[in-house]
Amino acid sequence: MMLHYAQPSKLKTKKIVFEAIYAASDSATLEQLKELSSKRRVIEEFINEKRSITEAIAREISGGLESRYEQDIHKIEQYLPILGNMLFYVDALSTNIRMAQWNAALKIRWSSGLISSSFFNLTGPKFFQIDNLRFELGMTLFLYGEILRERALELLSTDLILSPNFFRQAAGIYHHLAHNVLLPLQPLLPPEKPPEALAEVSNIMSLICLAEAQAAAVRRAEEKGTSPSLLAKLHHGVALFLEEAIGIFSTVVKQHKDISSRLLEFTSSCKSLHELKGQEYVAQSLKASDQIGAAIAVLHSALINARKKIPREESWKSIYQKQIHDASEVLRKFEHENYVVWSQNIPSVDELPLPEGKKIVKVIHYSPKIWERQLIFKTK
C-alpha cells in the first residue's frame, strides 16, 4: 500500500580531486588526499550513472554484497569517515588565507533532486556551487539517507523486520544532518542553494522515513492478525508523522520557492492513504462491537475525504484508487448487511469518534565515524 518517491536520491555531482587543490606537506598527507579523491570518485560514478565495472567486480569490491543499494551504501560509508577527518583539519586552519583559497578552488557542485522540473535546462540539471566542505558533507549525508531509504523499500516485500530498521536509520541520518551539520551551515549559505541544504528539508525527510518505518511495521502487524482497533491507531500514527512533515513544508516554500510540489503531493497522498486505511479499521472495529451504523458513517465520511485528494502521479493514483475501491467494497457490504439484518440508524459526522493515532517507531541515531589521521598542509 506504500507509495514510492525516489526523486530525492536523484542527485548529481561534479568531480573533485583533493590532491590537486590542497598542498600536502608530507607523503602521508598526499596519500590520504588521494584516498579521499578515490573514495569520492566511486560515489561520483554511481550517482552520475557512469559505473565502469561489471556486477561481479562490484560484488567482489563490496565484500560480496548483492544489492546495488547495499553496494552504494558501502561506498558512502567508506568515504564519510575520511571526509570527516579532512573537515576537522580544514576547520582547524579556517583562518589561514591559503586554506581559504584552496577551499574556494574545490568548486563543490551538486544538483538537486527536489527542485521543480522547470529549473532544469537543455544541458541537464542545474548545479549549485557552495565552496564549503560542510556542504559536501551535507549532500553526501543526504544521499546516504536516501540510499538507505531505497534499500528499505527494496526489502519491504521480503523482510518486514529489517526494512523498518533501514527506514529508522535513514531517519536518524536526516535528524543528524538537520541538527548537527546544516544548522551551523545555514548562515554561510548563499541565496542560491539546493533545498537539500536546508535543515527543514532534512527534518521533513526524517519524518517521512519514520512514517515509512511505521507503515512497514503496520504491514507486519496486519500479517500477524493484529486487532482492527490497534491497526487503526497505527495507520493514524503514520498520518501523524506526515502531518508534522506537511507543517514544516510551508516554512520551506518561503525559503526555497523552486522546491518541487511533488514532495508535498507525495507526503499529502501518503497521509490521506493511511487515514483512509485507518478509518477502514475503525469501521471494522465498530462493526465487531455491533455498531454497524457508526461503521458505515465512518467509512462514508472517509471515502468522501479520500476522493477529494487523489494524486496526479499515475503510479501513486493506481495504489490510491485501489484503496478507495477496497474501502468502497467494505462499505457496500456493511450497508447491505445493515439493510438486511441490523437496520441501525446512520449517525452524523459530528457524532463519529475522532481518529486516534499511535506512534511506535523512533529514529536510530546516527553517530558519525571519523578516521583520525593527521594531515599536514603547506599553509605558509
UniProtKB/TrEMBL annotation:
Residues 1-380 form the BRO1 domain. CDD domains: BRO1_Alix_like_2. PROSITE patterns: BRO1. InterPro entries: BRO1_dom, BRO1_sf, BROX. It comes from the Eukaryota. Belongs to the BROX family. PANTHER family: BRO1 DOMAIN-CONTAINING PROTEIN BROX (PTHR23032), ENDOSOMAL TARGETING BRO1-LIKE DOMAIN-CONTAINING PROTEIN (PTHR23032:SF20). This is BRO1 domain-containing protein. It comes from Lupinus luteus.
